[in-house]
Amino acid sequence: MNEEKQNINLENEDLNNNPMEDAQAKSASKTVSDSNQETPQPAAQESSQASDSTSDSETSAQDNTEATSENSEKEAPSAEAKNAPEAETAKTADPKSDVPEGQADTPVRDDEKIEKKAEDSDKIPDYNSFTKQALLEALKTAVQEDDVQKARSHVDAIKASFYKLQHERLAELKKLFVESGKDPMDFDPPKDKDETYLKELLEDFKAKKAKFNAEQEAIKLENLKKKEAIIEKIKVLANGEESLRKTFEEFRDLQNLWKKIGTVPKEKASELWNNYNLQVERFYDFIKINNELRDMDFKKNLELKIELCEKAEKLILEPKIIDAYRKLQDFHDLWREIGPVPKEKREELWERFSMTSQEINKKHQDYFLKKKEEREHNLNAKNALCEKAEIIANQNIEDIKEWNERTNEVMELQKVWKTVGMVPQKHNAAIYDRFRSACNLFFDKKQEFFKQRKSEFDENLQKKTDICVRAEALQNNTNWNDTRDQILKMQEEWKTVGPVPKRQSDEVWKRFRAACNTFFTARDNYFKTRKNEEKENLKKKQDLIEAIKAFKASDDKAKNLNALQDFQTSWTQTGFVPKREKDKLQDEYKDAIKTAFQGIDVTLSGLSDIQYQKQVDEWIKADDNKKIEGERQRLNQKIKKIKEDIVLQENNMSFFTGSSSGSLLDNVKKKIEKAKQEKSRLMEKRKILDLALRNLKNE
Questions:
Q1: Quick check: 5 pLDDT over 70?
Q2: For the stretch 333-367, what's the b/e string if a residue is b when 16 or more beta carbons lie within 10 angstroms of its beta carbon?
Q3: Residues 447 and 1: beta-carbon distance below 8 Å
Q4: H helices of 394-479, where?
Q5: Tell me: the pLDDT tens digits for 164-222?
Q6: Mean of the per-residue pLDDT values for the chain?
Q7: Confidence bin at 108 (pLDDT 50/70/90)
């Protein structure tokens, strides 16, 4: 359950930390917060419609564009300035000498910075070709970069490339882990010191960026104070008594200084621009600048705005829509900075710039509308994947094969999930949590199933191992019938034991089968050989019976007895015969040997005593006192037991009364008589032993 959970966590990293999407969204938020009447109001309204498809930062970008129509500056001077008598203005200042050389032709803002910024963003190396160590070195260099804005795109790209390598490394490790025969659920990703170092560098950059942002805010506040001071100075100029030449030079210096001062806090920009434009207008009204000087200024502004229109028109062909939109916002800043143009060109020029802005804004709007549609489509696709994962996760699976099939299905769903793009931001966390919860539920249930099965498998393995040990203990046993029954029972028992771990299943089965085969092969060989022996033994015993029947007794009783005993010994030493012939052959032998003993006037009981005496004599020859003493002790125990039985039976006779007890009483008497005879016979044997012991002691 672990291959399967690690892949989801890596995808979440991609979903929530997409450096390219973040960079686009944050760049889009930089828009014009205040402008003159020439700001493209219709285009801004169209852009605001696209805001529904963007993230929060993208929405703010559209809303800020709308603000351009609410804060405008009037481009033309007041009626008093336009209608001032030429004679009066001529007396006041000489246009040629009134404007310092070079200032009239100096643009309000040099947009080379924009192009340079675009160039810098294109110089990011292909970090996907770097090794992990090279990425860490590059990140260290980027973090030490003084230009935080420039370093940020590098940091985001390095981070994305590092985690791509990390994901590939973990996938390879997990593959090797599984190929080694281990359960994917047991895979535990190793700790990576490189990742720890990466996070430390990212934390350093985060702190540096926070410091940079704080410094920028402080600079903006300082810029606000400076620009407010310039407004106050222009206000003083508008009320001053100085000569036109000197006043205009001071005014132009203040304008140039205004241009050099950077941005101010966003919330103060609109009010600041309104105050600035108001004081500039009042200044023009106050000094009643002559038409020639004003026209020179208008001409310079006209050239700058035409150039700006041309640059904006080139943006229509820019394939990177987000970049084009950002540059357009910068061009709007420049447009606002540039002063008014001749009245007859004003509407035409503004229409040209406005139409270009509207077209770019429309492309920007369409881009995000398309993006919104794609994300809605992706949301539907991911909802479908969630439903499939939930159906699988809630199934009741009890079979290993089915678990493996369902696991493959879930892994395939995870692969498809990674190919589906982003969803609307407000749904991102919820849809991801839903899919992850379904996957986690599935793998948790699988882990619990295999954990329980592992315990059962281990227990089954122990049972089958015990059966193997028992079978191996019997595999060489020659008690064929009894052993066969035991092994057959073991085979039935084996069938009732459940499965064992797969990697040990063949081994334990081969072990049990080998023990069984060893026994049954030996048994088959034995009975195959025995069948031939039984045929031979049958012939030998038939010949022996014929020899006994043909026996003729001599006058030497001892010799006759030895001959018959030899017959008995030969019969005993001859092995098994076919089972179907056994009983018939045994009866023939008993009849023949009985007849032979009757022919030499010796009973079977007498023969038994003779044989017993012969056994004792062998013990005496072997000087085996222990055997004789052991046999005497055995006889004593049997005699004692018979005496106790006789006493018990005699006591029981007193309980028999009535006519029906006659037959029972007779049976008891017969048993008592038989027991007494057996006791006498055993006592005779004990005498033989006593005599043997005395002889041994005397020797």
A1: no
A2: bbbbebbbbeeebbeebbebbbbbbbbbbeebbeb
A3: yes
A4: 400-419, 425-474
A5: 888 888 888 888 877 777 777 778 888 888 888 888 889 988 988 888 888 888 888 88
A6: 75
A7: very low
Structure tokens of 23?
Answer: 């960079």
Q: How far is CA 123 from the centre of its chain?
A: 38
Counting residues of the chain whose pLDDT is more than 70, the rounded percentage is 77
If we measure between CA atoms, which residue out of 114, 110, 95, 113 comes closest to residue 298?
95
Alpha carbons 444 and 185: distance in angstroms, whole number: 9
Cβ count near 677 (within 10 Å): 12
Residue 427: CB partners within 8 Å, gap ≥ 6?
379
pLDDT at 576: 81
C-alpha angle with apex 152: 148 to 156, nearest 5 degrees?
A: 160
324 with 315: CB under 8 angstroms? Answer: yes
**Left, alpha or beta for 658 (phi > 0: left; psi -120 to 50: alpha)?**
left
Q: How far is Cα 235 from Cα 230, in angstroms, rounded to an integer?
A: 8
- Please state the length of the chain: 699
State the pTM of this model. Answer: 0.38
Is it the case that residue 589 has pLDDT exceeding 80?
yes
**CA distance linking residue 54 with residue 25, whole number of Å:** 8
Q: How many CB atoms lie within 10 A of CB 217?
A: 11
**Rounded to the nearest 5°, which phi and psi values hold at 35?**
-155, 175
Question: Cα separation of 188 and 129, whole Å?
Answer: 28
Q: Which tokens hold the place of 573?
A: 């030493």
What amino acid occupies position 640? Answer: K
Q: Name the token pair of 477.
A: 């046993």
Q: Which amino acid is at 593?
A: I
Q: How far is CA 169 from CA 17, 163, 174, 498, in A?
A: 20, 10, 9, 39
If you ran DSSP here, which 8-state letter would residue 187 be given? Answer: -
Residues 6+ apart with CB under 8 A from 489: none
Distances (CA, A) of 44 to 365, 463, 585: 10, 80, 123
Burial of 444 (C-beta count, 10 Å sphere; 0-12/13-18/19+): middle
H-helix segments, 18-85: 19-28, 41-49, 56-66, 79-82
AA identity, residue 37: Q
Cα separation of 112 and 695, whole Å? 139
What is the reported pLDDT for 121?
A: 45
For residue 236, give both structure tokens: 């003083």
| Residue 605: predicted pLDDT | 56
What's the token pair of residue 316?
């229509």
Per-residue confidence (pLDDT) for residue 528, from 0 to 100:
79
DSSP secondary structure string for all residues of 600-668: TT--HHHHHHHHHHHHHHHHHHTT-HHHHHHHHHHHHHHHHHHHHHHHHHHHHGGG--SGGGHHHHHHH
Report how far apart, in Å, the C-alpha atoms of 81 and of each of 37, 94, 104, 297, 527 are. Answer: 19, 16, 19, 14, 136
Q: Record the tokens describing residue 113, joined without a space.
A: 């910075």
Task: Give CA separation, 112 vs 103, 119, 328, 473, in Å.
Answer: 19, 10, 14, 95
Whether residue 378 is predicted with pLDDT greater than 80 in this model: the reply is yes
Map tokens 């140039």 to a residue: 256
Buried b (16+ CB within 10 A) or exposed e, 647-663: eeeeeeeeeeeeeeeee
235, 82 contact by CB (below 8 A): no
pLDDT of 116 higher than 60: no
- Candidates 423, 429, 417, 418; CA nearest to 384 is 417
Under 8 Å between Cβ of 184 and 174: yes
What tokens were used for 369?
Answer: 């509308």
